[in-house]
Amino acid sequence: xxxxxxxxxxxxxxxxxxxxxxxxxxxxxxxxxxxxxxxxxxxxxxxxxxxxxxxxxxxxxxxxxxxxxxxxxxxxxxxxxxxxxxxxxxxxxxxxxxxxxxxxxxxxxxxxxxxxxxxxxxxxxxxxxxxxxxxxxxxxxxxxxxxxxxxxxxxxxxxxxxxxxxxxxxxxxxxxxxxxxxxxxxxxxxxxxxxxxxxxxxxxxxxxxxxxxxxxxxxxxxxxxxxxxxxxxxxxxxxxxxxxxxxxxxxxxxxxxxxxxxxxxxxxxxxxxxxxxxxxxxxxxxxxxxxxxxxxxxxxxxxxxxxxxxxxxxxxxxxxxxxxxxxxxxxxxxxxxxxxxxxxxxxxxxxxxxxxxxxxxxxxxxxxxxxxxxxxxxxxxxxxxxxxxxxxxxxxxxxxxxxxxxxxxxxxxxxxxxxxxxxxxxxxxxxxxxxxxxxxx
Length: 441
Fold this sequence. Notes:
This protein is an alpha+beta fold. The chain folds into 3 domains: 8-83, no CATH class; 100-188, PDZ domain (Pdz3 Domain); 192-338 and 345-439, 2-enoyl-CoA Hydratase, Chain A, domain 1 (Alpha-Beta Complex), CATH 3.90.226. Helices cover 27% and strands 24% of the residues. The strands form 4 sheets. A 7-stranded mixed beta sheet has the order 11-12-13-16-17-20-21, with helices on both faces. Helix 7 packs parallel to helix 8 and helix 8 runs parallel beside helix 9. The termini are far apart. Residues 1-27 and 433-441 have low confidence and may be disordered.
């Protein structure tokens, strides 16, 4: 069965039939037989509940919908990142990973039955409308969100360009809901944007990891190097509010900055989920200083890149503690034309063997951004550790941290610190002496 690994996210009935039709084979002694018998009993319970609902519910239910609800119940009960995707949702996810889709441009998560904004995507209608991390979406047009699955909510937000959708959101610090009308667009996600800071530092913003990210990074590095020439002193890589994406792209981006060393390793229950990914020779920046910016909205693939740079002592990490999503999701197709499971199958570990699950990446230099009065109390993410049903961490867990990015680069404290360090205006207390941590005021 082909599996596609993502960083971000057989049916129950098939499993039930399998156990039911092989019951006689379970009647033997030993722990495995006892465990199988216990599983059979639970599946028989599921079968009985299913039949009672189908036969006695006040209105005749749709069998297919009942099964879909059951599957979603199984998966969402595991952790916040596992779910079932019907064929339409699977196709849309595949299109989204290619970087083009119709919608408003927003990354979401589910917390205790509520749909919460992780981050609006740079330059999209959601970002232009002022949607912020931590906003809780309570209504889509006239439909209340509570009771919808995450995939159902996402499906309602997608649609044809030039059509409108009205969002009702609750925002921390506001007594009343905020209503926002947004016009959908064809979202062409440019995962990499770049510019020169002055004429001597390349700034590269990576907003997510889709199929275009590595190519975009290569183009940005080549362009900045050509424009600056001999003046180029280093690169600032902005991973703030990057929610993740494709694992292979996060690995490739890390590899682009490394000459050698481990990038990341994954460990799961099955041998096939335990892998080690190493960098290949060829640092695209030719060894120039790298500083990566992270915050509480940097998750998953962004944390893989930050961890690889940090543990290989290849770059300094500046900002606030990252989100803490240290798990890998696999796409497991089920039945011809029946969609797929997005199932958490492994944890990932940084090169030094750290699991950042429910902990996050601690920056080498902590910079807490000054925020305007009107957005105070709105700038901290909840973090993976606060998500209901999250995979537990080994040791002490950490909740969220600041996820605010100043709208004007001239007010960006983390960026200016990075520029000063690369230019030698300020001595770098962290590079290359990780894991020393510093705070610059």
